[in-house]
Design brief:
Layout lengths: L18 E2 L2 E2 L8 H9 L3 H12 L3 H13 L7 H13 L3 H13 L7 H13 L3 H13 L7 H13 L3 H13 L7 H12 L4 H13 L7 H13 L3 H13 L7 H13 L3 H13 L7 H13 L16 H19 L2
Antiparallel strand pairs: 1-2
Helix pairs in contact: 1-3, 2-3, 3-4, 4-5, 5-6, 6-7, 7-8, 8-9, 9-10, 10-11, 11-12, 12-13, 13-14, 14-15, 15-16, 16-17
Length: 345
């Protein structure tokens, strides 16, 4: 069975040859955003100076890199506005990756006025030029109807293009459409195929999705033991949803020995990573005193954070009557401070 195939999770580290014989070596047109950003973070100060000089002389790829250098603050003062200027120059010369990054800036309103429609236009131009990250993003905004018409069929087409270009996020998103039958007829075999393809590229959310299949018995026989192993791998790689799911298995003793301390540990990691379910469940652990000493004020804090993060159940109602006005005020202040600090990350 496809899902039983062993996932090849090996870190592939490619060497960087940025300058050779005094000649600027540009990024490949299919280089992923993550790879480009990693390369920019690794530049030495002298190399940054060289890139910026090439950008000033009109080299489109150097202008793309200059945009990333300013966006990331690599040996320069970080500046979204300067980044947008360089992305614009590169995009005007036809750079598809620059159009993608510039689209991101318009989508966020970073360095430019927020404009979802213009962001979508830039994403589409980059996608039509065959840039896989833009194809995947077009799929996402087509599902959401953000800056473009909402269309599940269009989303399927764009995710298919990205997946066929072996872009891991596109493979993962395409798998989700096949699993749920959105924009295409439901097909578990193809859902599993594309989840595995993305997981083999170290795309951790795809690992978590495979764990979900085993945990829920969707598209395969339910197997909590296999789910726990896959969740643990993804959780150890920092996936917040996997951490929350693994915490739930430890809490219930499904696929692992029941262990409330381990449940508390994984809910804590998930909550700190920003997952609303993890935040709610951490509140529950403090409320019930499971895996930790009971602390209703801490429970109120985490229920507040989960609610602000969009969790559908407002857990504050479970503990409000047991707290004084002073305790509630203290918990709310702690929650607001946590939110403020994490929004600044």
């Amino acid at each position: 069975m496809l899902l039983s195939r062993q996932l090849a999770i090996h870190l592939r580290v490619s060497g960087l040859a940025i300058f050779a014989l005094g000649i600027f070596v540009c990024a490949g047109a299919q280089d992923t955003p993550a790879n480009l950003e990693r390369k920019m973070r690794m530049l030495e100060e002298g190399e940054v100076t060289r890139v910026l000089g090439e950008a000033e002389h009109g080299n489109a790829n150097a202008q793309l890199w200059a945009g990333l250098i300013y966006e990331l603050g690599t040996h320069v003062e970080r500046s979204d506005s300067r980044a947008a200027e360089w992305f614009t120059k590169a995009a005007d010369q036809g750079s598809a990756p620059a159009k993608f990054f510039l689209g991101n800036m318009y989508a966020r309103g970073a360095g430019v006025k927020k404009d979802d429609q213009h962001a979508a236009e830039l994403y589409k131009a980059a996608a039509q030029a065959g840039y896989p990250a833009a194809e995947s993003t077009m799929g996402t905004i087509s599902l959401q109807g953000r800056g473009t018409a909402r269309s599940a069929a269009e989303a399927f087409q764009w995710f298919s293009k990205a997946a066929n270009h072996k872009f891991a996020e596109g493979e993962y998103k395409l798998a989700g459409l096949y699993k749920d039958g959105i924009g295409v007829q439901q097909d578990c075999t193809l859902a599993i195929k594309w989840y595995i393809a993305a997981a083999e590229q170290l795309y951790v959310p795809a690992q978590t999705a495979i764990g979900d299949l085993y945990s829920s018995g969707t598209c395969t026989d339910q197997d909590y033991g296999k789910a726990a192993k896959i969740y643990k791998s993804a959780a150890e790689h920092g996936d917040a949803k996997a951490q929350a799911s693994l915490g739930s298995l430890y809490l219930m003793g499904r696929g692992v020995d029941q262990n409330q301390e381990q449940a508390f540990r994984w809910f804590s990691k998930s909550a700190d990573s920003g997952d609303a379910l993890g935040q709610f469940m951490l509140g529950q652990m403090y409320r019930e005193g499971h895996g930790v000493d009971q602390d209703l004020e801490a429970a109120y804090k985490w229920f507040t954070i989960a609610s602000e993060n969009g969790y559908e159940t407002d857990g504050r109602k479970y503990v409000r009557d047991q707290l004084s006005a002073k305790q509630i005020k203290s918990a709310e202040a702690a929650a607001n401070e946590w939110i403020k600090q994490h929004q600044a990350r």
